[in-house]
Queue: 4 jobs
Job 1
Amino acid sequence: MQKPFVWDSYADQPFPLEDRAYKRAHRWRNLPNILWTIFLGGLLLPLFYIARLFFSAKKPSIHDFFGMGINLDKEKNGIDQRLLIDELGIEHLLIRFPLWEMEKLSQYVAFTERFRDKHITLVLLPSRAHIEDEALLARDVGELFIAFAPTVEAYQVGNAINRTKWGFFSMGEYLRFFKTVRKIHRSMGQKSALWGPNIIDFEFYYAIHTLLSGVRFDGVSMQLYVDRRGSPRNRQWGLNLRGKIDLLYAIVQLSPQRSAPLYITEANWPRQNSAPYAPTSETECVDAAHYDAYMVDYFALAWQSQKVERVYWHQLVAKGYGLVDETTGEKYSAFDALKTLISTAKAQNGILPHPKGAL
């Protein structure tokens, strides 16, 4: 990445921005759009709280419900992600592509080729240069659309866009970015889908701004983490995971995106005693037993809502939060827990267990 954005290779995410002057300058420049987000969210969010009670489900397919994030840089220490994915019985994959690594395009293409019989969504991680330079973005996105056309079915445009460390300082910046990507996508006659806006956590005022902006997404993708609350049944603003899904679904249904499927593209819990690989502080970390129970409960609650097309677990190989320890290749107990959940759910045509949440 380019300074002041620095990548944390342990936790697989950028470090928080430390240059306060840089951050302050960009926020000031985007202040009108930031204020619009606050105003719109404050005005409409109470209405969506009520509206969530009145929408019926779309009834997704259990065979397409389970997804998994995999990464090129996890192919080490004897780890073969292809074999692991086949063992789990996963058909839908999410792969990140950092736009600041265009020189590695051929390596990423070769990596996706190994999974060409799967359904692949590529996540476009922007650099600040690509956000600010439309010509650079158009050039690089056009090149990767050609390169990935044989293997990639969908692109998630942006990632956790309500966190400045991922590049965007306002929803307006993101929407301009998405429009540029869509313009190139259409001009090239691409058949793949474009997903967005990818808001992280329970901050749905950002979702309200982007989903009601008039911009159309082929799929609505969100990172609905609940790890800071412990069990997915614990409440925030009066809502547990199921309630949050109901609220998000209502926002989608009352927006121009009402025909777009809803995807949760990231969820996990940080693992106890795994620093510096854990993506959060030790306070939020859980032991293996709680990780396994919370993961199964998360999938069960999301499926029972019948409003989420697919949940992608983040991610297969990651010492601090995944199913396999990247430093040793050892499978955590969660790997077998998910394997059992998937095979049982498919065999019973969508009957998932009903865990009691926290142990």
Job 2
Amino acid sequence: MFPDALPFLEQFKSKRLAILTNGQRDQQDMKLQKTGIDHYFEFVVTVDDVGVGKPHPKIFDKACQLAGLRPDQITYIGDNLQKDALAAAQAGMNGVWLNRNGKSPRAGVSEIKSLADFSQ
């Protein structure tokens, strides 16, 4: 786990947090339980749940459905520019690119270099 993850989860634990992942359900559940952070998340959406992964819009739509929110009410933070931030933005969410590698900035989405940089 990155050092900024737990402080971020603690800071935003009063918010509704969820995970969208291209990983398998069993693998994701195991990782969350093993790291002890599973209780921070209201739900997890995996490729197993939807039949397609990111960047397909269906996985983002499923998250909106489970949250009972419109896409424009959701902020999605992800470390993959194409599959996370841009795909979320194309689905109508506020896409935020977690650019941990310092790659060139990209127009069209917000960018943070660490979860500690996020404020809402």
Job 3
Amino acid sequence: MTIWKYGDDINTDMLFPGKYTYTCSTAEEILPHLLEDLDPTFAGTVRPGDVIFAGKNFGCGSSREQPVLGLKAAGVRAIVAKSFARIFYRAAINQGLLLIECPEAVSAHEPGAEVDIDVEAGRITVGERVFSFPPLPSEILAIQEAGGLLAYTRRRLEAPGH
């Protein structure tokens, strides 16, 4: 697993250039353009299970689904940031992309360090250091586990007693 590290105020245009908004809608169309203006190596190198570490206000900017869809389709395990823009946070929940606010872990990252995320325990291990984060609400965990809000809703509607 690779840790990708970025700074503050990474906006949705940096994650997925706005010039493709109306020409790319499927994961296959979005993937080649992920982070192309911020990190041209990302789209061709990211692997399932990789984790993004970032600074404050990650995902600020316009309200578009493509950045989250692309990161999820690329197999990004989680984004650990100092803080998230609210609209990006909600879009990530809807798509089942795991977001964790843990400023201390972001600051402790060193190139090549291993990272382990234990969501249930609210713990991130970076190298030899362990950091705690507030447990995620059970509803968010259930949506993330289902693969997104749509899958979660379908599952609930198909459950006995509905």
Job 4
Amino acid sequence: MSVTEPDTAVTNRAELRTVYREPRPRAAQKVLDHLDVHCRNFIEMSPFCVLSTTGTNGRADASPRGDPPGFVKILDDRTLLIPDRPGNNQVDSLQNILNHPVVGLLFFVPGMNETLRVCGTAEITSDEELLAPLSVGGRTPLSGLKITITDAFLHCGRALLRSRLWDPEVQIDRSSYPTYGQVLADQIAGANAKAIDADEDEANRNQLY
């Protein structure tokens, strides 16, 4: 005879607050509706961020964005511009934004355990004059994301401390995980691992911009 396990699913805020205590007042007080000098400095030092979007079907997505520090241009205290560099042309994030413009950004700075969280609404721009300052090697991005900020705040460093993200001692030996090409060859019938890896190597050398 099977024993019915108790239902431990948390389904509403009241139940959630039986698991977690109320936050300290400063957790809400620190949330800004604009970029102050500290947020600006963080973004200007950041070479990497994660962009989160949502499709019309409610399916969430997160996509990495990276370039030299300061690649995200601060247009003013409430507006950011992120270049869209060459990729696989699937443009999942951009398609999501066309239908649901609310986005989240998580900025990282190597060596810092704190991260910067930014929320807002995004629009896709192909304005060449606006995008020209984001050019690299004479190549202007095909488009950019112009983000109007609704929330910005510094996130504590505990997640990165627990993960030891910047600690060289925990970096893996890359050979312990299959190459990009091998992973795709295992997932796609008829795909050739060596050909994919060669194609990726060429793209990484010559098509970053």
